[in-house]
Design goal:
Order of helices and strands: EHHHHEEEEEEHEEEHHHHHHHH
Structural class: alpha+beta
Number of domains: 2
Shape: globular
Oligomer: single chain
């Protein structure tokens, strides 16, 4: 998917947002954003809204049958198995991160007013985002809630809020349609998901619409990333849009004239804002790069899940009408599986990742915290090892292949992905889309996955036997 640049218009303002609206005054005020900054909530009228029938079977997005890390934590809170400790300064933030095993080092900071708690967000008071493989947390200084999104293996992104008022029984409140007004659009691959945006931002934290915006994906060049974010790290002579504020009329009208290098290679964010209210003084460059990859792949996994299950449903209906076995394969079903499987595979194998032209380096322990999680093969290799010299990862296959969401993909989709990956890793791909993988890469990936994801690797054998005479 190519990088998309948009001028002012619907959905042109969001960075990574978890737009939630409980029945508090702050959330009622969020409705005013439709006519101002977050015009993306008008997606239904803009033509960008998804037409995926996610409320129907077999998806049934809005039903209560969910099983994600946050719903599991809520059950533990209700049973008394776990508790959340409240702190005066950050409320439940630290306790939530600990309970969900989210490292503080994943902290990234966004100062554009691209959250419903926009009145509390500014260059002086950025919003913090934390994440692990399955959960995203948003925290704003003085905010009424902690913003939460977790990945359910069948339904995709599930949105929650947790009140920051101290309570004997803190509770995560789920949100559906109010969040999907934004988080179910073409910008999230047409499914309930997440959006990472890069925007030019003025001194108040307002997005400069006339300057255009960028959707951030793994294909985005570094120079189009992280507008409206603080970025701590080194990256040589490469440039990004982070740490920059548009201060004059000329740059609002001609953003191409902004010197992006002025915000680069920053290791001390204390020069921009007071860092003491935050869990760390960092907005780590490497964490931001991993976040961009992860958000994109999560959305594609959900899209592949939805569309494969819908294709299977339609196949059964057609076969029933024709008096055939319900699971008899149709060419139209294969085509639909392929249409969502191939983009997912390209993202998993980093096929469209722009190379680094200089090494990048973060400023905290994120690299170690992230890489130490494994799993590793007998040679000690892991898909979580970061390269940071030529590309993001040493072994170009996404660590999200280990997640419950990937494992929950329907069987036909897993078979398709395995068959195609087998072709690619054996050097038999004819599409020309995987030139980023060297012979050494392909061999290493086969060996690592055979050891660390044997059930998936067994599908390679199945696909090899299927093509044998």
């Amino acid at each position: 998917m190519p990088v998309t640049r948009t001028k002012s218009g619907p959905a042109g303002l969001l960075n990574f947002t978890l737009s939630l609206r409980p029945r508090s005054r702050a959330f009622r005020l969020a409705g005013l954003l439709v006519g101002s900054l977050v015009s993306s909530w008008l997606l239904v009228g803009s033509g960008l809204a998804s037409d995926t029938p996610y409320e129907q079977e077999p998806i049934s997005y809005g039903d209560s049958l969910i099983d994600d890390p946050v719903s599991q934590l809520q059950k533990q809170l209700e049973s008394g198995e776990k508790t959340l400790k409240y702190e005066p300064r950050q409320g439940y933030l630290r306790a939530v991160l600990e309970a969900l095993r989210i490292p503080h080092s994943s902290q990234t900071l966004v100062f554009s007013k691209t959250s419903f708690q926009r009145d509390r967000i500014a260059p002086e008071t950025p919003r913090a985002v934390y994440f692990n493989d399955d959960v995203y947390i948003g925290w704003v200084q003085g905010g009424e809630v902690v913003e939460v999104s977790a990945v359910d293996s069948q339904k995709g992104a599930i949105f929650y809020s947790l009140s920051q008022n101290e309570s004997d029984s803190p509770r995560f409140r789920r949100h559906t349609h109010e969040c999907l007004q934004c988080h179910d659009s073409s910008l999230s691959q047409g499914v309930p998901g997440h959006i990472l945006r890069s925007v030019y931002t003025d001194v108040r934290g307002q997005a400069v619409l006339t300057a255009g915006t960028f959707i951030t994906s793994p294909q985005s060049p570094l120079k189009e990333r992280f507008g409206g974010w603080y970025v701590s790290g080194k990256h040589g002579d490469q440039v990004h849009m982070g740490n920059l504020i548009v201060r004059d009329k000329e740059h609002k009208q001609h953003p191409e004239r902004i010197n992006l290098a002025a915000g680069g290679n920053q290791t001390d964010l204390g020069k921009y804002f007071e860092v003491s209210p935050y869990l760390t003084p960092h907005s780590d460059l490497v964490a931001l790069q991993v976040l961009a990859h992860q958000v994109h792949v999560h959305n594609l996994i959900t899209r592949a899940n939805y569309h494969t299950r819908l294709a299977q449903r339609d196949q059964a209906s057609i076969n029933k009408a024709l008096g055939k076995e319900l699971d008899e394969p149709l060419e139209s079903t294969r085509s639909r599986i392929r249409s969502v499987g191939e983009p997912l595979l390209r993202a998993i194998l980093f096929a469209d990742e722009p190379p680094l032209t200089a090494p990048i380096e973060g400023t905290n322990s994120f690299v170690a915290d992230f890489s130490d999680q494994g799993p590793r093969d007998p040679q000690g290799r892991s898909l979580r090892e970061l390269d940071l010299q030529r590309r993001l990862f040493r072994y170009p296959c996404s660590f999200l292949i280990y997640t419950p969401a990937f494992d929950a993909l329907p069987e036909p989709q897993l078979d398709y992905l395995a068959t195609r990956m087998n072709q690619i890793l054996q050097g038999e791909d004819e599409t020309g889309r995987y030139q980023n993988l060297t012979a050494a890469d392909r061999q290493a990936l086969r060996e690592i996955l055979t050891e660390t994801k044997p059930d998936f690797a067994k599908r390679w054998e199945k696909s090899t036997r299927a093509k044998s005479p």
